[in-house]
Amino acid sequence: MKALPATCLIWMYGALSATPSWSEPQPTEALNVSIAAPAFWCPYACDKNEPRWGAAVEIVRAALASGGHNVTYQNSPYERALFEVRIGRIDATVPTFKGEASDFIFPKHAVSSTEYCFYVSRDETWRYSDHESLGNIHFVATSGYTYGQVLDAYISENLEQSVTLLRGENIPDRMRRMVRMKRVDALLDDRLLFEFDKNNKGLINAGCLPERHPGYLALSPKTPDRSKAIAEAFDRGFERIQANGQLCQILEKYGLSARFVPHLDAKHCSR
Fold first, then answer.
1. Which residue in 73, 169, 188, 267 has a CA-CA distance of 20 to 30 Å to 83?
2. What is the reported pTM?
3. What tens-digit pLDDT sequence spans the chain (271 residues)?
């Protein structure tokens, strides 16, 4: 074979090194999928150092593993996780509402369903009934979340006047402390997160928003071909673990009913 000129070899090396290590796989190749979510999202997503990663994360892992794919999981504040996924540094976050990341790529199947409720101190008489009932209270919520069109508009219009949004780590504990210290009248939180958290003594449910939000594996728009391949692999795997009962086994491990997953047929689960 005729030797290649040095300049040609240099060009070839540069072209190879510029190719992303996670370039679009062939359908038969195993995918290595990176996922990020907050550690305080139990039972959806939990501490990566604990044996149980959270029901939503485990559903994703089981669905992809059924097709021979691998999941790596890390904890990150939600807004940071969304940013890292948006720029393609991480493949996905879970569970995410479509309204929180409309430019992301989503599979067909959702992995969770969320209901938001207001919580107040036991001695507080205020109760949520509708949009008009918010007029006399100051509440705290989480930055980066969407709570539905009407409430999102209310939050935007009243930010820092009668609404406070928190960012960063340990948001549930910080919100509860603010209510207990009377710095705000109420907190707005995911009902399941609140009830799963042991740090909720002295606080009671003051009413819930009417709509429920499906949560998805939200994949990076930066790498659309790769994200679509992951979404398709997840959907195929989701249908496998639903059919073989593994999906319901994951829910049962966390004490969750079939209602946790939108459109899941309850007859597949014993709870």
1. 188
2. 0.82
3. 334 443 343 333 343 333 333 344 444 589 999 999 999 899 999 999 999 999 999 999 999 999 999 999 999 999 999 999 999 999 999 999 999 999 999 999 999 999 999 999 999 999 999 888 998 899 999 998 999 989 999 999 999 899 999 998 889 999 999 999 999 999 999 999 998 888 888 999 999 999 899 999 999 999 999 999 999 999 999 999 999 999 999 999 999 999 999 988 777 675 4
DSSP structure string for 5-66: PHHHHHHHHHHHHTS-TTPPPPTTSPPEEEEEE-TTBTTTB--TTSS---HHHHHHHHHHHT
Residue that the structure tokens 């989701």 belong to: 238
**Residue corresponding to tokens 């692999």:** 233
Q: Which tokens go with 1?
A: 């074979």
Q: Which of 193, 175, 172 is nearest to 43 (CA)?
A: 193
CA–CA distances in Å: residue 158 to residues 120, 138, 154, 163, 210: 19, 9, 6, 6, 21
Cα 105 versus chain centre, distance: 14
Extract the tokens encoding 10: 């240099």
The answer to whether 268 and 245 are in contact (CB under 8 A) is yes
Hey, what are 52's tokens? Answer: 């149980």
DSSP code of residue 220: -
Minimal CA–CA distance to 188: which of 220, 232, 158, 233?
A: 158
